[in-house]
Amino acid sequence: MAQEVFLSNVDLNEAVKIYFNKLLCIKGEKENVVTWESVGRVSYSPIFAKISSPFYNSSAMDGIATLSTKTYGATDRSHIELQEGIDYLVVDTGDPIPKEFDCVIMVEDLINLDKGKVSIYKSAAPFQNIRPIGEDIVKTQLIIPSNYMIRPVDIGSIIAGGVNDIDVYKRPVVGIIPTGTEMVEPGGELKVGDIIEFNSRVFSAQVSEWGGIPLRFDIVKDDYSLIKEAVKKAVQQCDIILINAGSSAGREDFTCKVIEELGEVCVHGIAIKPGKPVILGSIDGKPVVGIPGFPVSAYVVMDNICKKIVQAYIGINNEEYTTVEVVLTRRVMSTLKYLEFVRVKIGFVSGKYIATPIGRGAGTTMSLVRADGILEIPQNIEGYEVGTVVNVKLLRSKEEIKNTLVCIGSHDPIVDIASDLFHIKNGKYFLSSAHVGSMGGIMALIGSETHIAPIHLLNMENGSYNISYLKKYLPNKPMVLIKGVKRIQGIIVPKGNPLNIKCLQDIVIKGRRFVNRQRGSGTRLFLDYNLKKLHINPQNISGYEREEFTHIAVAAVVAAGDADCGLGIYSAAKLLGLDFIKLGDEDYDFAVPKEFIDMDMIREFIKVIKTDEFKGELDKLGGYDYAHIGEIIEL
């Protein structure tokens, strides 16, 4: 089959407008549900009270019901006696008030006498302590309007108003068709070239969250006739159809042709990045959307287009995100061809929100997990310079962000362990880490972009760690160093060390493939320091320029056989079942501006790393000495 080309590069808002104008039939149907099962549903029509609440005059207190005129003149010095059955009736909270009485005196203001008599010492006003008819809800009063998402508290008022069943928008059934010959169900046997299919599960969760009913179909191979039959089946069973993957213009991208044959393609290609090759079509008047296969592209399309479609069926407008002004800590470049969605980490440091762009690849799923917000770069802007103040859409609340300890610097698995324990022990606090290397941490401290920076920077002249760098790069900023751990650095090699690598010289002499850490990392400095001592030219190492940003990533490359060896820490090798050749020990510490040391979050962090629980986790990893952990050194 001939390859398809993109039909357009339409502006996002224009594409949505074109699509919704085409689908004028999108009007959700109604269904009747019992009131107490309506939470989270959207009212199809306004709900009016059938009765008042209360629907009779009722007592607001435990006490006696009486006539207010009989209480006039009662004082502390001049009590008035009342006779039960003649002057008053004993009532409890909620009891009806007979028409001959117009007030309630609460039991605390009564003096009980013999023979059913009471004495009062306060006058009562008409309708004192009485809930009149309709005090809460008046018959025919509007309780909730149309197109209103019903909350638990609303259910109480609706029932109190005598309405026991209501019309709500019927939840649309959303058919989700994953496609791809290379796709494998979670838990299935994997071979090289296979991809675990998870997008459809994400779609299902999103559809449920938005108020629809997901119906996931089995994976369909990249076969035109199979995809066509799956789509025809979905159109019969569903209100909305989402086809995942195959929306682009490759040899096995059949989605556009299938929609064209069975219905109509309204838009193919929208000026967004990621997510450009989206297809907006219809079959039998039902929306059919072809969604790109890359996870981040899929997320952008789902959040900016499919969410609107689902919510149109259930009668609510697309919810707006909360936005916040942030200061960019990195330069962000874009293209004039697209509206680009950039994931960012957000922190609240020194009284301002700061945002750092994270992985921009369309397939980097963890960038969505780690993102706190989305920066939209308009189509007519080439990007933003560092320090620019921009608006971002929040994916987390401001309160969560303000309660997040920002940790930017060198990577070590112990930061992830500390992050988990930090939140477990202090439920309102979070720790957000960005792995940019030790020098990246120093730069973040200089720019007031982080609370804490893990560093292990080796002084190439005297072999000491960290302090000289803080004094050099932050001479006018009072700093403290929270002692962390001594850890073992060395060469990570496959299990059994099949190539018999024993030292750095072997990597050069035997021409082994190497994987390095990024420039500015403490590990890179450690390597360069040792190469200098051994008079080894880095250019003679095959793979010296190949960079990874974490120790685990280096270990993963070696484990996969893509490199013969790499430099990293012992715990990373152990985690992936690899062997290790020790080269030396180093100090992995936490640099903190002195102004932050008394912050509650910092104090709690120090408590966590000093716990036996944390130390026990370090023992499991291996390769750490924590004798001085948590000690504070003022510089």
Automatic annotation (TrEMBL):
The pathway noted for it is: Cofactor biosynthesis; molybdopterin biosynthesis
Query: What reactions does this protein catalyze?
Result: adenylyl-molybdopterin + molybdate = Mo-molybdopterin + AMP + H(+)
* Cofactor(s) required for function per UniProt: Mg(2+)
**Enzyme Commission code:** 2.10.1.1
Which InterPro entries does this UniProt record tie to the protein?
MoaB/Mog_dom (IPR001453), MoCF_biosynth_CS (IPR008284), MoeA-like (IPR038987), MoeA_C_domain_IV (IPR005111), MoeA_linker/N (IPR005110), PBP_domain (IPR024370)
What the entry lists under Pfam families is as follows: MoCF_biosynth, MoeA_C, MoeA_N, PBP_like
MoaB/Mog domain residues are: 175-312
Matches recorded under CDD domains = MoeA
NCBIfam families documented for this protein = PRK14498.1 (NF011068)
Query: What family does this chain come from, according to its entry?
Result: Belongs to the MoeA family.
Q: What is the protein's name according to its record?
A: Molybdopterin molybdenumtransferase
Q: Which organism is it from?
A: Clostridium frigoris
Q: Name the lineage.
A: Bacteria, Bacillati, Bacillota, Clostridia, Eubacteriales
